[in-house]
Amino acid sequence: MVLIRDGAIATDEWVRAAEGKALPAGAPTIVPFARWLSDSSTLRGHSAPLGLYMTGADDPEAIAADVGRFALIAIEFPVFTDGRGYSTARILRERLGFQGELRAVGNVLRDQFLFLHRCGFDAFEVAETDAAAWHAALAEFRVWYQPTGDSRAPALVLRHRAQAAE
Amino acid sequence: MIQIVTANRLADGLVVFRCSGGWTEDVTDAAQAGDAESAARLLGTAAVDVDACVIVDPYLIDLDEADAAPKLRREFIRASGPTVQVGFNRTRHGGDE
Amino acid sequence: MYRYDEFDHALVAGRVDQFRGQVARRLAGELTEDEFRPLRLMNGLYLQLHAYMLRVAVPYGVLSSAQLRKLAHIARRYDKGYGHFTTRQNIQFNWPRLEETPDILDELAEVEMHAIQTSGNCIRNVTADQYAGVAAEEIEDPRVYAEIVRQWSTLHPEFSFLPRKFKIAFNGAAHDRAALRLHDIGLRLRRQGGQCGFEVMVGGGQGRTPMIAEIIRAFLPRRDLLAYLEAIMRVYNRFGRRDNKYKARIKILVHDLGAKAFAAKVEAEFETLRGGALDLPGAEVERIRRHFRPPPYDEIDDPVAWYDLKRREDKDFGDWARTNVGAHKRPGYAIANISLKPIGGVPGDATADQMDAVADLADRYSFGEIRITHEQNLVLPHVRKTDLFEFWQRLGAQDLATPNLGLVTDIIACPGLDYCGLATARSIPVAQAISTRFAALSRQHDIGELRLKISGCINACGHHHVGHIGILGLDKRGEEYYQITLGGRADADAALGKIIGPSFSATGVVDAVETIVETYLSIRRGGEEPFIATVVRTGLTPFKEALYGAH
Predict the structure, then answer these.
(1) What is the pLDDT of residue A142?
(2) How far does A136 lie from chain C, in Å, by closest CA?
(3) What domain range is B72 assigned to?
(4) Under an 8 A CB cutoff, do C33 and B57 touch?
């Protein structure tokens, strides 16, 4: 597995919290969602950046007030056909204003890169073979019909621009 | 019991049957297995062709002992084609319709 | 009809290239079948009983003659010379090769067609009333909104991996010809206080657990359409069941939560989206509406004496006009229905030659436009009454003039075990046998409107739950048996048919249908009461007794 961040292969400085143990001092640590909910008062004091690990079943609204505390949120796709993470991502980005790294983990294949990117993911844990296809995958479409929180102008906006230019 | 292995060919989707040396569209040419062990072996040879992207989803079907036709109606129709009239004959692409 | 601009072309072209790459990766072994399957399904390509099956999208059932000619060409070049029109206004080809499918998609793109999202767990073809834009009792043309939703739902990044398939339908007329109450989302155009908007219903569907949709919003202002749909989809994407394929449609979620609680979730989500980037301004609606301007109709006085005379004079023409001609909003014009249910034929199939013939007829008589109906028939929506006789004669030359619209031989049937990998029994031979049994036209007219629908398995693609007579094919100990339901309907008074009793053999079911029809004829009120009205009035008892004997 390989980490893609901002379109390039990157080293992953994050570690996962060991169950039942205190977070390693000074290390950026990813904490599971349930643990955050039950233990946030302790975890808040962590001396290094905090990350959150969510599954599709976890409700982003439950951490609405704390969204700014996380430098990273990882959303798991247990199988790529489980599309709940896309909604979670959009809620985090567009409604709750999360600005840190939003990472897709689990069964993440190149054919989902563009959809994930449009929904606000900017980091991806993927197989090496798929990593090589990153840029090609993102270039597969230049037109979109619907707006999401990303900066791509949907067709409607492009049409009006084209008309205005005439 | 008689069993044969069937699958769909990946490239064109057509129904095929395991025969010696490969796959055939004709169920009467299918390699027949007369017991569980040889049936399992036959199915095992098919697995290689899944990885080789020749076929998908191979499985065993039972043949009727008397006429060597597939027992299940579904498999019978799969082997012999729709029981209703099928449009016109396909004109092979030799350039024109 | 809608014409692509450069952006629509770019999207479809991108999709074809993407799929070409995916097919190449699959054939080279870089993708397994499990990884490839959802991708090919999102491009409408199934692996069926005998071969692949390609389902081509026909947005809200509207085709140009150029598009229909291209479909005929594809049938000839890549298939076995025919196609099948479906209950969701699409067309299916039964024999494409995977390795040729990217070429087929390229050809479709040339005429602004594609197979995007005609399968898979995503939003499917948005359907509408087949008489949209021309029905005499139309309130507003629903195709405008169907097109807007088509675009919004295409390659939607958040909703491409839903728990299950998703079907949306629009209706803009007094009569519901789009079966709104049997869809995941049904949208009925209406006005309130001078404002345009929609009644929104959710959670209809057939299959293993048929349900009628619940109204969750009596009036949704037009500009909120996309934001509200996005809210519904997000609630479904987040909370729809993913543990059991047969419990994964939105109807199960609506049922489990209750319509009120479901609606509350949607409204809460909607509040965060309303007035934002999905706001639908009137200017955009008008831009899309310009694509659906009426064609350059002639000024014609109605009634058209010659047409009325011809109908009386020529009995065969009169028979055809009686059932197959619908009322047009424009004086002097008519809606012409082309039945794809010849007596003893395969329901909904058309040969490439027939498709070309219909395309020519559309150019000659209907401003080049054709429609596909939910009942697997075709429509030429703008035919001058003065042209109808000549048109009908030309139809007859192509075996397309069967005068049976809405009658007992206008049967809806899924492809069944002859084609479909999911089926438990064959449906087409049963349809053929029933059609042949009731061939006599005078008898059909005597019976009147009777919607008979046949499904070859409990997935109900033949919509048997909403047939006046519904037939479901089962497998009992290796034999094909057929269960009959009565009293279903798909219109605004939508109702699910009730099982009448033990199932019948393949020959027995034809006799059973005849017994049901004869029973109806003997008990109908005033000698004229329609079949469905009789069933509603009497319930199942007289039919049960006729079939199984009194207890």
Answers:
(1) 85
(2) 10
(3) 2-80
(4) yes
